[in-house]
């Protein structure tokens, strides 16, 4: 495969495995500066959303459609039924969330503009962001284990456990007794782009049939850490999620990052 995988000038710590996988298949891994973009035949991207927006804005007008970014809809998670999420989730604004007196989990839908975590009350939320910033507010749930799955065309291509009881604890899926169950759950989730990352939580001890599964969140594949996933298989998902328009299936058009990528 030819083409370029663009990365931010300040490379993310997570880029190493994906970069090696890209080089192994004949791609160039380059710092995302406009001259490199202009000379590339096929352009793909791995990095943060803010830099991606600046990058696309700087592209020549005739090149802009050739870097298309897929992302889950902001209202996807709160729109899922309780049986899939296992907790109350609603979309609101940062201003409303700041008035909450109770302990809740708060996250930006996709922008990563502040840290997603449990806040003891709304007063702990960032004060330097506009009140109309979109956020998701959810009941606090403790997961025994959390898994990251890279999905392409409804198939889990690779994944790993990334946390146990809220602490970072990566492990290959092959070492996780609930892997088959977790993968089947993720592969049947509706309303997602063809290339996406889904995080799934397990509410009870491993290998316990009484433990339930719940969606933690969905993420842009082009800004998702691979943890102990197979980098080559994760790269397959990243390349579809951030690449030329010719690779974007018709069903993915609603998931394009339209408002900033000008496509």
UniProtKB/TrEMBL annotation:
Question: InterPro entries in the record, alphabetically?
Answer: R2K_2
Q: Where is the ATP-grasp domain?
A: 85-237
Name recorded for this polypeptide: ATP-grasp domain-containing protein
The protein's organism comes out as Saccharothrix ecbatanensis
């Amino acid at each position: 495969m030819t083409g370029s995988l663009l990365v931010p000038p300040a490379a993310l710590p997570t880029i190493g495995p994906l970069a090696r996988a890209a080089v192994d298949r004949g791609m160039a891994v380059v710092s995302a500066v406009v001259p490199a973009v202009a000379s590339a035949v096929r352009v793909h991207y791995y990095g943060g959303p803010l830099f991606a927006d600046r990058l696309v804005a700087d592209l020549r007008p005739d090149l802009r459609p050739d870097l298309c970014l897929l992302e889950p809809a902001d209202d996807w998670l709160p729109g899922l039924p309780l049986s899939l999420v296992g907790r109350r989730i609603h979309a609101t604004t940062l201003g409303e969330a700041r008035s909450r007196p109770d302990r809740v989990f708060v996250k930006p839908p996709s922008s990563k503009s502040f840290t997603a975590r449990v806040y003891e009350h709304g007063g702990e939320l960032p004060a330097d962001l506009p009140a109309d910033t979109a956020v998701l507010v959810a009941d606090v749930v403790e997961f025994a284990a959390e898994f990251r799955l890279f999905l392409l065309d409804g198939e889990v291509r690779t994944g790993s456990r990334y946390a146990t009881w809220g602490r970072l604890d990566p492990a290959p899926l092959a070492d996780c007794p609930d892997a088959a169950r977790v993968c089947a759950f993720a592969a049947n989730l509706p309303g997602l782009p063809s290339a996406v990352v889904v995080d799934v939580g397990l509410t009870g001890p491993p290998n316990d049939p009484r433990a339930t599964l719940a969606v933690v969140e969905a993420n842009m594949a082009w800004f998702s850490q691979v943890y102990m996933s197979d980098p080559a298989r994760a790269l397959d998902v990243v390349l579809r999620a951030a690449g030329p328009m010719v690779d974007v299936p018709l069903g993915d058009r609603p998931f394009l990052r339209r408002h900033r990528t000008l496509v």
